[in-house]
TrEMBL record:
Domain Bifunctional inhibitor/plant lipid transfer protein/seed storage helical stretches: 29-113
InterPro entries on file: Bifun_inhib/LTP/seed_sf, Bifunc_inhib/LTP/seed_store, Plant_nsLTP
Species name: Phaseolus vulgaris
UniProt keyword annotations, A-Z: Disulfide bond, Lipid-binding, Signal, Transport
SUPFAM superfamilies: Bifunctional inhibitor/lipid-transfer protein/seed storage 2S albumin
Family per record: Belongs to the plant LTP family.
Annotated GO MF terms: lipid binding
UniProt keyword annotation of Endoplasmic reticulum present: no
Name this protein carries in UniProt: Non-specific lipid-transfer protein
GO BP term (any one): lipid transport
Family annotation (PANTHER family): NON-SPECIFIC LIPID-TRANSFER PROTEIN 2-RELATED
Function: Plant non-specific lipid-transfer proteins transfer phospholipids as well as galactolipids across membranes. May play a role in wax or cutin deposition in the cell walls of expanding epidermal cells and certain secretory tissues.
Length: 117
């Protein structure tokens, strides 16, 4: 009896986790942060842009489905970048080019993310 109960609870939890990850259709700030964390070293210290960082940029670009996604990503990156000591915004804006791609917006503390198309 007890074993059945545990199995039931476990399968309910698995179900909840799956539902949770399936319902995340919109781009979340936590996901963006995970993708872009490998880029922080270059943004602060310079040197070379790592391939992990470029992969994060590609994933982010591929995830944009709408203007809302781009505006949300802009706001997310801007808010989180503001907490990174020593971040160099000129270097931040060089990263997409160094990865051979583009970012739909330029990131500065003054960027108006509501105006991103
Ligand atoms: C950048 O990468 C190149 C080639 O991999 C390497 O020769 C160079 O030393 C690296 N520069 C820095 C600053 O790490
Ligand atoms: C930001 O852009 C939006 C949309 O273009 C505009 O309505 C708003 O006034 C702008 N905000 C600032 C602070 O410039």
């Amino acid at each position: 009896m007890a074993v059945t109960k545990v199995a039931l609870v476990a399968s309910m939890m698995a179900c909840m986790l799956l539902t949770c990850s399936y319902s995340k259709s919109t781009l979340t700030c936590d996901q963006i942060t995970i993708w872009l964390t490998p880029c922080i070293a270059y943004a602060v210290l310079g040197g070379n842009v790592s391939s992990l960082c470029c992969q994060g940029i590609y994933s982010l670009n591929a995830a944009y489905k709408s203007g809302d996604d781009r505006r949300g990503a802009c706001q997310c990156i801007k808010d989180r970048a503001a907490y990174i000591p020593g971040i160099d915004y000129d270097r931040v804006n060089q990263i997409p080019g160094k990865c051979g791609t583009k970012c739909p917006f330029k990131l500065y503390p003054s960027t108006n993310c509501s105006a991103v198309k």
